[in-house]
């Protein structure tokens, strides 16, 4: 059984006017790795690729972990990579190529930064200028489930942004506010994202994957847009690093973000495997472009622990998106 574990932010200090950016500290990350080592061993994306290409069956009596980081944040390179190297643990870092090709900010990070300066309630007031951001009961239930580690108001805010507004509608609202709070964008960009040289180093280690060109839920867009998101990113990263990019982490990773033609287009582009955010273990490699992945908080050493439940329920609870 392969258990994928996903992280985003890793920093020593998370103090802001409003709590909007959540992650782990370097000490907590190191401690969680040590805890997980008691349950199984760590594998690389190259191990997964080789097994898929050989058509291997997984031994579900053994537990194997793969560590993943999304978004290409500089703190991941500066804080997480040294810990991983010290412990001899491989990982994969999935990046959005637009941040490095166009030196722009992902909308999701603009939102995180903006939310560190204004409350969720204030942000919702901005959104409610768009009537369609009002959620019905079913949508609220989806929001609470998907963003289970957030309070109700924040979960509604995140769901409204990510699944009720188009990318362009979000941009229009966020860009107007972002410049009010963050003036020196060039300096902020260098602080937030990895450099080209850091991407090349990760690629040399076999630790680099794509997170799409921009950070959008691909399944909500046209086939042409999905194809562009995957192919532009893959081609850019391969040209930059002179290495093969064969793994993808889908932004947001929910059913809506991965539905329809997303995995088929990914396969056609030459990607071998892909991670969603479906919280489950991988008992099979039969659907390699829709593999499951836990949030780091779901496992021992995190805020919750679904590990015991996972070991009991096993494969009968397994559901794929297609």
Structural commentary:
The chain has helices at residues 26-36, 45-54, 74-87, 97-101, 107-115, 120-127, 137-146, 152-164, 167-181, 185-192, 196-205, 223-241, 255-258, 262-268, 307-313; strands at 2-7, 9-10, 23-24, 41-42, 64-70, 91-95, 208-210, 247-249, 273-275, 294-295. The protein is α/β, with parallel strands linked by helices and 322 residues long. The protein has a single domain (2-105, 185-317), classed as TIM Barrel, CATH 3.20.20. The strands form three sheets. Strands 1, 4, 5, 6, 7 and 10 form a six-stranded parallel β-sheet that branches. It starts with a strand and ends in a 9-residue tail after the last helix.
Provide a short characterization of the protein structure.
With 322 residues, the protein is an alpha/beta fold. It has 15 helices and 10 strands.
SSE inventory with pairings:
Layout (H helix, E strand, L loop, with lengths): L1 E6 L1 E2 L12 E2 L1 H11 L4 E2 L2 H10 L9 E7 L3 H14 L3 E5 L1 H5 L5 H9 L4 H8 L9 H10 L5 H13 L2 H15 L3 H8 L3 H10 L2 E3 L12 H19 L5 E3 L5 H4 L3 H7 L4 E3 L18 E2 L11 H7 L9
Parallel strand pairs: 1-5, 1-10, 2-3, 4-5, 5-6, 6-7, 8-9
Helix pairs in contact: 5-9, 6-8, 7-8
């Amino acid at each position: 059984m392969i258990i994928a574990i996903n992280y985003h932010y890793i920093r020593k200090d998370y103090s802001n006017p409003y709590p909007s950016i959540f992650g782990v500290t370097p000490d907590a990350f190191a401690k969680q790795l040590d805890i997980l080592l008691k349950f199984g061993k760590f594998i690389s994306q190259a191990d997964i690729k080789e097994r898929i290409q050989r058509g291997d069956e997984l031994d579900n009596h053994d537990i194997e972990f793969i560590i993943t980081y999304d978004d290409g944040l500089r703190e991941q390179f500066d804080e997480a990579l040294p810990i991983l190297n010290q412990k001899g643990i491989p990982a994969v870092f999935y990046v959005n190529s637009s941040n490095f090709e166009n030196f722009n900010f992902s909308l999701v990070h603009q939102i995180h930064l903006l939310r560190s300066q204004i409350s969720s309630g204030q942000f919702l007031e901005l959104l409610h200028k768009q009537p369609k951001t009002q959620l019905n009961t079913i949508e609220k239930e989806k929001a609470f489930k998907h963003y289970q580690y957030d309070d109700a108001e924040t979960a509604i805010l995140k769901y409204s942004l990510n699944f009720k507004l188009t990318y362009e509608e979000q941009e229009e609202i966020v860009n107007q506010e972002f410049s009010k709070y963050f003036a020196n964008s060039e300096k902020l960009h260098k602080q937030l994202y990895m450099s080209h040289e850091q991407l090349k180093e990760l690629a040399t280690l076999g630790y680099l994957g794509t997170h799409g060109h921009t950070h959008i839920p691909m399944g909500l867009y046209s086939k042409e847009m999905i194809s562009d998101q995957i192919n532009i990113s893959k081609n850019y990263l391969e040209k930059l690093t002179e290495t093969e990019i064969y793994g993808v982490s889908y932004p947001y990773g929910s059913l809506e973000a991965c539905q329809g033609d997303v995995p088929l287009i990914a396969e056609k582009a030459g990607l071998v495997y892909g991670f969603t955010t479906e919280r489950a273990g991988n008992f099979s490699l039969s659907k390699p472009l829709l593999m499951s992945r836990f949030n780091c908080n779901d496992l021992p050493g995190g805020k919750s622990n679904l590990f015991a439940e996972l070991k009991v329920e096993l494969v009968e609870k397994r559901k794929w998106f297609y």
